[in-house]
């Protein structure tokens, strides 16, 4: 095992529509995409697309959506370690002017405990906070083995405070800050206090406020993609995580500034495509983004 990603899987249905119908109205979407979804799940697919070899511990149901998900994972050669649920989870996503509304239906009532996986050779662990018992257990185990531990802090969860004590790289969303009643700078101080070597707050078109191994705080601007080219921002943060982890796997001694620079170009590609799968960049796509939108 090279890398382990732990999270909740979804099937995402993304639709472009001029207006949302209400009441007894009907409307026809201009375009749509059906893809895999979930924070750590999408990050794993992005990492695989960029040459990493992730394995995925995630929810899985024995239904037609679950079988669709397995087909998707097989296409990217991602081994699945299932944690069984009764029904697959769904997300309905509606991009709108650089934002997106999301309606989710989730089954996280796991029918079995987290599997005991062999971590031999594992170099990194990425978590999104779902499967809280598995997340904490594997974070402790990977910390003991010296593997890099990474957290996508999209929201504050019940055991987030305890989990952060075992996280090397914590990149959180603005929603995380809001739930903590902290601004971005104070959130970075909090992450430092929990022992995270690298910390950051993603801020959409404003890029990321982050600190490096020395504790120095800096801003990484987003690449200047013209607003007219932005189609779907959903999943851009997940692709960002998957890309910096792929960069770490290939160049483990490179600076985190280099890893994040690589990842922001991946996000710039994602926002120009509808749905998660269409938005997974290749390395050539990332170089194109860097050429088109120099920082």
Write up what this structure looks like.
The protein has one domain (3-18, 29-292): UDP-N-acetylmuramoyl-L-alanine:D-glutamate ligase (3-Layer(aba) Sandwich). By secondary structure, the protein is α/β, with parallel strands linked by helices. It has 9 helices and 13 strands. The strands form 2 sheets. A 9-stranded mixed beta sheet has the order 5-4-1-8-9-10-11-12-13, with helices on both faces. Strands 3-2-6-7 form a 4-stranded mixed beta sheet. The protein has helices spanning 39-49, 64-75, 132-145, 160-163, 174-180, 184-193, 236-250, 256-270, 283-292, and strands spanning 3-7, 10-16, 31-37, 54-61, 80-85, 89-96, 99-105, 124-127, 148-153, 169-173, 198-202, 208-211, 217-220. The model has no long low-confidence stretch (mean pLDDT 94).
Percent helix, as a range, is 25-40%
Mean pLDDT: 94
Relevant CATH superfamily: Ribokinase
Derived structural class: alpha/beta
Order of strands across the widest beta sheet?
Answer: 5-4-1-8-9-10-11-12-13
Order of helices and strands: EEEHEHEEEEHEHEHHEEEHHH
**How much β-strand is present in the residues?**
25-35%
Largest sheet: 9 strands, mixed
What is the number of independent domains?
1
| CATH fold-level assignment | UDP-N-acetylmuramoyl-L-alanine:D-glutamate ligase
Q: What is the gyration radius calculated from CA atoms? A: 18 Å
Give the end-to-end Cα distance, rounded to a whole number of Å. 35 Å
* Strand element count: 13
How many DSSP H or I helices? 9
| Envelope shape | globular
CATH class: Alpha Beta
In CATH terms, what is the architecture? Answer: 3-Layer(aba) Sandwich
Uncertain stretches of 5 or more adjacent residues: none
């Amino acid at each position: 095992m090279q890398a382990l990603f732990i999270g909740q899987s979804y099937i995402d249905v993304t639709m472009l529509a001029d207006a949302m119908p209400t009441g007894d109205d009907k409307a026809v979407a201009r375009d749509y995409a059906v893809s895999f979804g979930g924070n750590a799940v999408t990050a794993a697919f992005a990492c695989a697309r960029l040459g990493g070899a992730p394995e995925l511990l995630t929810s899985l149901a024995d239904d037609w959506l679950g079988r669709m998900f397995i087909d998707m994972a097989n296409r990217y050669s991602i081994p699945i370690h299932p944690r069984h649920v009764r029904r697959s989870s769904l997300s309905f996503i509606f991009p709108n002017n650089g934002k997106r509304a999301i309606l989710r239906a989730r089954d996280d009532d796991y029918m079995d405990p987290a599997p005991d996986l062999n971590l031999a050779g594992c170099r990194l662990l990425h978590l999104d906070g779902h499967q809280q018992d598995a997340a904490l257990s594997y974070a402790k185990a990977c910390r003991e083995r010296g593997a890099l531990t990474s957290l996508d802090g999209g929201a504050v969860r019940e055991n987030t405070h305890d989990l952060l004590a075992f996280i090397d790289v914590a990149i959180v969303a603005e929603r995380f800050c809001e739930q903590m009643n902290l601004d971005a700078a104070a959130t970075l101080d909090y992450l430092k206090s929990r022992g995270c070597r690298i910390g950051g707050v993603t801020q959409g078109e404003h890029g990321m406020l982050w600190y490096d191994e020395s504790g120095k705080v800096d801003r990484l601007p987003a690449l200047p993609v013209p607003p007219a080219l932005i189609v779907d921002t959903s999943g851009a943060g997940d692709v960002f995580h998957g890309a910096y982890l792929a960069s770490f796997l290939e160049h483990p001694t490179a600076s985190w500034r280099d890893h994040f620079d690589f990842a922001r170009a991946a996000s710039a590609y994602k926002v120009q495509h509808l749905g998660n799968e269409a938005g997974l960049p290749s390395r050539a796509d990332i170089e194109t983004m860097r050429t088109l939108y120099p920082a």
